Each structure stands twice: as structure tokens, then as C-alpha cells.
Amino acid sequence: MKKKHSYSSIRWLKRNFKDHFVKSARLNNLRSRAWFKLHDIHLKYCLFYRGMNVIDLGSAPGSWSKYAINIIGRNGHIISCDINTMSPIPGVYFLQGNILKEEIFSKILNRIKNKKIHLVMSDMSPNITGIPSIDIPKSLTLAKLAMKIAMLTLYQKGTLLVKVFQGLGFLDFLNKLGFFFNTIKICKPNASRNHSREVFILARDFKK
Ligand SMILES: C[S@@+](CC[C@H](N)C(=O)[O-])C[C@H]1O[C@@H](n2cnc3c(N)ncnc32)[C@H](O)[C@@H]1O
After folding, report:
1. 115/109 Cα distance (integer angstroms)
2. Is 134 part of a structural domain of the chain?
3. Does any ligand 1 atom lie closer than 6 A to the CB of residue 158?
4. CATH number of the domain enclosing 175
5. Quick one: which atom of ligand 1 is closest to the CA of 65?
6. Could you give the number of structural domains in the chain?
7. Is 163 assigned a catalytic role?
8. Residue 99 resides in a domain
9. Please, where are the H alpha helices in 51-187?
10. Of the N and C termini of the chain, which has fewer Cβ atoms inside 10 Å?
């Protein structure tokens, strides 16, 4: 039977067809166009260095984890988690499951044990409906969870990079982060679509 596409998925397909970053990702054998967002942020703010330990939330299909492990090298660790599957990346420990479930949350914490985590990054995004009153609170819930994991695992002076949709609750979230981190920056990488509400908050220098 022929698969029917909804109006929004047809719009998404058309936009992706034209998208320069999608083409570039394909040409360069990258797992997704999200690679360019992280690259942009890393070029500006130098997120990664050799030997660091990283948690990657909402990691599938894996372009951020792959980007990070290439710089971190063998002496560092990456723990990645996504509700979807992700094909393996050497050096990356992947956990499949819904981060909103207590069981997955605990599995991540168990895996970390006493490791010092230097960076928690979250590119998690809910399934987008296009309705702000639904999408924004869902995005905030995911971002708050990323913050909670950061609070529990980051070493003093560590970094949190978290995607969130701008809208109701955004400023409160930003203020909350300001209590726990000395520096807060809002990043809108080139590959992030102009019409999209997504921004990345880069919170550095965790006060613990
Ligand atoms: C934009 S994609 C991430 C792309 C990824 N950073 C990359 O570079 O390939 C957002 C991801 O968030 C994941 N996600 C959304 N809600 C989640 C949840 N509750 N638990 C785990 N992952 C979730 C989705 O499955 C999706 O793969």
C-alpha cells in the first residue's frame, strides 16, 4: 500500500530536498545535518578537547557523537542515549531508551559511576507538531531533564550545551541555569533554520 504523507511531512520533504546542509551532509557522509550546528558551536567556543568525558542526549542518528569522538580520542568516553536506535560508533557507549523514563535515567547514572563528566550536550527534540503551545513545553521538559543530568554528573567547571525552543518558560529556564553556571551564551548556529524556535544554550563553568 502506498504511504500517505501529511501536509507537514510533505513540507518537510520539500524543504529538505532544497536544504544546502542536507546536501552537504550527504556528500560528506555525515549522519545528519545536525553535524554542522555542533561544528559551528565548537569553532566559536572550543567545546571539545582530548580525553574528555561527554554525555550526548538525543544522539541518534549519531553525527554529534561521531564529531565528538573524533576530537576526544581513545582516552575519553562518550555515553549517548536516544529513544531511537543508532548504528554503533567505535568508542561510543550507546543506550537506547526514553530519557523521560526513570529506568533509562538511572541506567545513564549507573554507567557514569565515578567518571568526571566534562560536557553534557543535548540535541533532544520532541516530535514537532508545529503548534507552539504543544512543542515548546515538550522541548522545555527535555531541556530540564538534560539540566538535571548535568547537575548530577558534571564536574566543577563543566559545561552544558542544551537545545531548547524559545517561548513561554524559556526565560525562567535561562535564569535557573544562571544560578548554577558562571557563563551563559545563547547560540543560533548557521545550520539552525531561521524560522525554527530552536536555540542552543551554552552554560559554562558549573559552580557545583
Ligand atoms: C535532532 S535529533 C538529534 C540529532 C543528533 N544530535 C545527531 O547529531 O545525529 C533529536 C533526537 O532527540 C531524540 N529524543 C527525543 N525525545 C527523546 C527522549 N524522550 N529520550 C531520548 N531521546 C529523545 C529523538 O529520537 C531524536 O533522535
Report:
1. 10
2. yes
3. no
4. 3.40.50.150
5. 8
6. 1
7. yes
8. yes
9. 63-72, 102-112, 132-153, 170-180
10. N
Percent of the chain whose pLDDT exceeds 90: 80
- Residue 78's domain comprises 35-206
Q: Which of 4, 44, 113, 163 is catalytic?
A: 163
* 208 residues of the chain, pLDDT tens digit each: 455 556 556 666 666 656 888 888 988 889 999 999 999 999 999 999 999 999 999 999 999 999 999 999 999 999 999 999 999 999 999 999 999 999 998 999 999 988 889 999 999 999 999 999 999 999 999 999 999 999 999 999 999 999 999 999 999 999 999 999 999 999 999 999 888 999 999 999 999 7
Q: Which amino acid residue places its CA nearest to atom 22 of ligand 1?
A: 82
CA-CA distance, 134 to 98, in Å (whole number)? 19
Q: Kindly state whether residue 24 falls inside one of the protein's structural domains.
A: no
| Span from the CA of 172 to the centroid of ligand 1 (angstroms) | 23
Q: Residue 4: inside a domain, yes or no?
A: no
56 lines ligand 1 (CB under 6 A): no
